[in-house]
């Protein structure tokens, strides 16, 4: 698996919120501080490539398969919480 | 030779024509197959079982009707859930339509684009993501020599296939850094049911301007797909492989 798609969000002891934050910090290589304010293209690492890494991280962490429309809509940390809800994941 | 041993190949339109030939060839080279088809009758099932018996590979049958968005979505869900290890995709299924520019109704144009372009892109988007996670993959989109040369009577089919070629190049550029290759295979006239959709007189004209002076046997096209699927083409991406018997060699 390419480095960009490696992450460690499957730890059972973590809450969904912790797992969700972990996806962002690991896929986008950003610190946890300020992660809740993150928006697409708001940091250098969240470009189109980083976006696909983030999607892969979320799919693996929560065992879901995101529709293309939702991948496109994933424009911020906040927006992602609403999208996760569609897949039955409460953050 | 087993050059696809250990690989899992997803092929659409497996029940006949080029797709059926590719399935047999890929299986003979050791690939497990995710066989997508909109047909699932007893003859088809028995045919798939015969391939399994002959080559000792696994075949996973998935129902997918490219004209039905719900069917495509459901099939892609199944693929994402059960076949995360697919590393070859052949976007082969498609429909043809012959009519002049002025005799092509917008509804037909939309229908062709729905099946020959939109559904194919949706499959690519989904399967390429699975491949990116593996760090490898080869996507082969079956286009058409007609999409490259342009010709009277093929507004809908040729335009949709030309769009597919463009999408292939975009994907090649965006997914390349993850080890995923994307190429288009553009066959000339092949001796399949779809190849015979043209009137006989038209077929004769095409053969006349084909350097080899004949239609392609489906196995000749399948071997080109095998090349693109295998590591023999490991540094080839974003290309259109014209397998047209020299139709455009003039």
Main β-sheet description of chain B = 7 strands, parallel
Q: For this entry, what is the oligomeric state of its chains?
A: heterodimer
Using DSSP, what is the number of strands of chain B? 7
Number of helices of chain B: 8
Strand content of chain B: 15-25%
**CATH architecture name of chain A:** Orthogonal Bundle
CATH superfamily of chain B: NAD(P)-binding Rossmann-like Domain
Structural class of chain A: mainly alpha
Radius of gyration of chain A: 12 Å
Helix segment count of chain A? 4
CATH homologous superfamily (4th level) name of chain A: ACP-like
Jot down its keywords.
heterodimer; A: 91 residues; Non-ribosomal Peptide Synthetase Peptidyl Carrier Protein, Chain A; B: 250 residues; alpha/beta; Rossmann fold; globular
Furnish the topology, listing elements before pairings.
The complex is a heterodimer of chains A (91) and B (250).
Chain A: H1 16-27, H2 48-62, H3 68-73, H4 77-86
Chain B: E1 8-12, H1 17-28, E2 32-37, H2 42-55, E3 59-63, H3 69-82, E4 88-91, H4 106-134, E5 137-142, H5 145-149, H6 155-175, E6 180-187, H7 200-208, H8 218-229, E7 240-243
Parallel strand pairs in B: 1-2, 1-4, 2-3, 4-5, 5-6, 6-7
Helix pairs in contact in B: 1-8, 3-4, 4-6
Structural overview:
The complex is a heterodimer of chains A (91) and B (250). Chain A has 91 residues and is mostly helical. Chain A has a single domain, classed as ACP-like (Non-ribosomal Peptide Synthetase Peptidyl Carrier Protein, Chain A, Orthogonal Bundle), CATH 1.10.1200. Helices cover 47% and strands 0% of the residues of chain A. Chain A has helices spanning 16-27, 48-62, 68-73, 77-86. The radius of gyration of chain A is 12 Å and the shape is globular. Chain B has 250 residues and is an alpha/beta fold. Chain B has one domain: 3-Layer(aba) Sandwich (Rossmann fold). Chain B is built from eight helices and seven strands. In chain B, α4 links the parallel β4 (88-91) and β5. At the A-B interface, α2 of A face α3 and α4 of B.
């Amino acid at each position: 698996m390419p480095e960009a798609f490696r992450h460690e969000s499957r730890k059972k002891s973590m809450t969904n919120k912790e797992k969700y934050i972990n996806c962002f910090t690991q896929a986008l290589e950003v610190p946890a501080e300020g992660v809740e304010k993150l928006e697409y293209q708001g940091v250098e690492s969240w470009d189109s490539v980083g976006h696909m890494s983030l999607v892969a991280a979320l799919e693996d962490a929560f065992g879901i398969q995101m529709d293309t429309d939702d991948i496109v809509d994933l424009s911020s940390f906040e927006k992602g919480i609403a999208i996760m809800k569609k897949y039955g994941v409460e953050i | 030779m087993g050059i696809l041993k250990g690989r899992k190949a997803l092929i659409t339109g497996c029940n006949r024509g080029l797709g059926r030939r590719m399935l047999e060839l890929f299986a003979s080279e050791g690939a497990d197959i995710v066989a997508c088809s909109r047909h699932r009758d007893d003859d088809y099932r028995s045919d798939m079982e015969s391939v399994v018996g002959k080559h000792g590979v696994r075949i996973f049958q998935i129902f997918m009707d490219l004209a039905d968005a719900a069917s495509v979505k459901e099939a892609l869900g199944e693929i994402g859930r059960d076949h995360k290890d697919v590393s070859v995709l052949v976007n082969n299924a498609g429909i043809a339509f012959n009519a002049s520019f002025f005799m092509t109704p917008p509804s037909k144009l939309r229908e062709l684009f729905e099946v020959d372009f939109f559904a194919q892109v949706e499959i690519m988007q989904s399967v390429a993501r699975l491949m990116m996670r593996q760090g490898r993959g080869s996507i082969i989109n079956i286009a058409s020599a007609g999409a490259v040369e342009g010709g009277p009577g093929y507004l809908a089919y040729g335009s949709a296939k030309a769009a597919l070629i463009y999408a292939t190049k975009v994907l090649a550029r965006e997914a390349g850094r993850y080890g995923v290759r994307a190429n288009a295979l553009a066959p000339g006239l092949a001796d399949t049911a779809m190849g015979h959709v043209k009137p006989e007189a038209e077929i004769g004209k095409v053969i006349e301007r084909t350097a080899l002076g004949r239609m392609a046997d489906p196995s000749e096209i399948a071997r080109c797909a095998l090349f693109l699927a295998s590591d023999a083409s490991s540094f080839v991406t974003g290309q259109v492989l014209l397998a047209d018997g020299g139709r455009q060699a003039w």
